[in-house]
What does this fold into?
Amino acid sequence: MDFQSKKAIYLQIADFVCEQILLKKWKGKEKIPSVRELAISLEVNPNTVMRTYTFLEEKNIIDMQRGIGYFVSDSAYDNIIDFKKHEFLTLDLPQIFRSMDLLHINLDHLKKLYNERTR
Amino acid sequence: MDFQSKKAIYLQIADFVCEQILLKKWKGKEKIPSVRELAISLEVNPNTVMRTYTFLEEKNIIDMQRGIGYFVSDSAYDNIIDFKKHEFLTLDLPQIFRSMDLLHINLDHLKKLYNERTR
Amino acid sequence: MDFQSKKAIYLQIADFVCEQILLKKWKGKEKIPSVRELAISLEVNPNTVMRTYTFLEEKNIIDMQRGIGYFVSDSAYDNIIDFKKHEFLTLDLPQIFRSMDLLHINLDHLKKLYNERTR
Amino acid sequence: MDFQSKKAIYLQIADFVCEQILLKKWKGKEKIPSVRELAISLEVNPNTVMRTYTFLEEKNIIDMQRGIGYFVSDSAYDNIIDFKKHEFLTLDLPQIFRSMDLLHINLDHLKKLYNERTR
DNA sequence: GTGGTCTAGACCACC
DNA sequence: GTGGTCTAGACCACA
It folds into this structure.
C-alpha cells in the first residue's frame, strides 16, 4: 500500500481490510492483525490503525475481545456487501451515469472498456 | 445546491459551473454571474466563489476581464470535455469496475440500471 | 470540570455537551465552542475535544459546517433524550433494581433519599 | 455469562461471586470453585479468575488456604453489603437522580417500573 | 479563523 | 502480549 489518494489513510486501510474480507482472505471469526502488527507492516502510526479498527467496529465489521485482539465479525461479509452496494447504487452510480451523459459516453463504449480492462 | 457532500464547496461550485457550460446553458463568450451574484444565490461566502473562479481561470475554462466580469472561454467546452473524460477514464472507471467485481455486479445488471435511471 | 471519574475524558466532555443541550443552555442551531476554544477552557488537548465532537456528530447531536464550526443539530434535544432514556431504562435501571434487591433497599427508602437529595 | 459489557472481565466475575454469596448460594465457610474449575465453566483464562480471587481476598470476602482452595470468609456477607451499599448510596444514586431529572422521569414513573419489573 | 489528519511517544488496564 | 486514551506538536485544506 502506498496511500497516494487524497482519502484519509485510516479510511484507505479500512477499505483494505474490507477487501481482505470480501476476497475471503480473512474469513469469519478469524483474528486479524493486531493494531501494532498492522501499523508496522503498513508503516504507519499505531494510532492510525487504531482509528481504522474503531471505525470498523462501529460498523459491525470487526469485533474486539479484551486483551486478545480484533476478529472478523460473524456478519462482516454481508455487512460490507450491503453497505458498499448501497453506497454504490445511491451515490456513485447516479454520478457515473450523469458523467456519461455529459461526456457523451454510451453503454456500448463502456462495455468495450469493461471487457478490455486489465483485471 | 446544498453542499452536503464532503467535497470542498468551491469544487462543488466548479462542477456546477462546468455543468452549465456542458449543458450549453452558459455558452461560449457569454458573461457568467459575478462573484457576488453567485455567492448570494448559492448562499455562500464570496471568497468561496472567488476561489472557484480563480480555479477555473487557471484551467482556462473561464476568462476574467478586469472591471467587467468573467466570461466562458473560447475553448471552455472542449477543455472541460477533455479534462473530465481523461479523469473519468483513468481514475473513476478502474475504481468502478473494481467495485463491480467485489460486489458481484455485472454489466447486464448495470445496463438494466442505466436504462431505468431517472434522467 | 475535573475529570475524576474513570470514564474516558472525551466521553465526559460528550456528557457535558449533552447536558448543556438538555438544560437548553446551548439551543438548537446555535454554534457551539470551537474545538480549540473548548480545549483551552477545559484544559485538555484539542485532539480530545475533536474526538468528542466526532463522536457526537456520528450520533446526530451536532453538525459541522466546513470552515465555520459545529452547531447543535435540529433534533439534538430529542435524540439525546431518546438515546439516554433508552440506555437508562434498559441498562441502568435493571441493574439498579437488582442492587436494591440484593442490598435490601426498598422503594420507600429510595423515596426518602430522593426527597432529601441536594439538588 | 457473556461478558459483553465494557467492564473488566475479572470485575464482572467478582460481581458474580458476590452475588452468589448475597443470594446465599455460596454460604459462609464453604469452599468455592477452584480457579481452574471456574475458569473452565466461564470459558475464560485461568489468570483472569485468579485475578478475581486475589481481588476478593484483598477485600476480605474470600480466604485462601494453601493447597486446599478458596473459602467464603466469615464476614463476607456483611463486608459485601457494607461495601456495595456505600458505593450505591454515594456513587450510583446521585447519578441516577441526576439522570432522572434530566430525562424528566419522576418517582411515580420509577415506582411503576419497579413494580412491573421481571424479577 | 475553522476542522481534519497524522506522527511520536507515553501511560494505563487488562488477558 | 492486547487494546484504549491522552498529550504535544505539526501540517494541511477550507471559508
